[in-house]
Write a structure and sequence with these properties.
The structure is a single chain. The protein has helices spanning 3-11, 39-61, 69-89, 95-102, 106-146. It is mainly α.
Length: 155
Amino acid sequence: MNIVEFFRRLFSKPSPAPAPLPPATSPVRVEYNDTRIPPSAQTRIRKILVTLDEVQDAASREATSGINRFDLEQMRDLHLPKLVKSYIDIPPAHRAEIFRKTGKSASFILDESLDKMQDKLDDMMRSLAQHDLDAFTHNTQFIGQRYADKDNPFL
């Protein structure tokens, strides 16, 4: 080590320790056909899972769909199961406390939350469908212009 390096180390501020990595989020496991889940919520969950697949399929067709696949994975693997598990984990004898605090039953709030997730997925699907509609319209306009009789010198 030369003298310059010695003084640089001596008078420089120590580099800060790297920030610890956030703990890995372990997936939440839940059985969506659990009898503790209200039938109305089970119906909504099934629809959400189907729509998630549809959105992922539609987004995979598009190079730049504007749909964040990470958000879809988070919804499927973390947010949806975590929401449902948190409902299941409420002891039935204490669910009335939620009604006293909010004026709504826990199952009603669960349904509302599931509806919000479905609304977000429906918006994503509309966005993807609009992109497909725009592409189709553009292609039909091109074909109409390219192959119109007035542009065909052979007719």
